[in-house]
Amino acid sequence: MGVFVNVKSFGSRHAAVSTSVLPAVLGADMNVPLADGTMAPFANFDHAATAPCLEAVADAVNTFLPWYTSTHRGAGTLSAICTAKYEESRITVRQFIGCRPDDHLVFTRNTTDALNMLARIVPEDTTTIVFAHEHHAGLLPWRDVRTLPIQSDVDGVLTALDGALAEIGAKALVVVTGATNVTGELLPLEELVAITHRHGARIAVDAAQLVAHRPIDMTALDVDYLAFSGHKLYAPFGIGVLAGRSDWFVAAEPYLRGGGATVNVGDDPRDVEWSLGVPRHEAGTPNVIGAVALAAACETVRTAWDSLIPYESVLLTRLRTGLAEIPEVNELSLFGLTEDRIGIVSFTVDGVDPGLLATALSVEYGIGLRQGRFCAHPLTRHLLRKSGTPGSETAVRASLGLGVDVAKVDRLVDAIRTISEIGLRMLYVTQDGTWWPTAVSVSSHDAGSVH
Ligand code: PLP
Question: Domain containing 330: what range?
Answer without folding.
Answer: 4-52+305-444
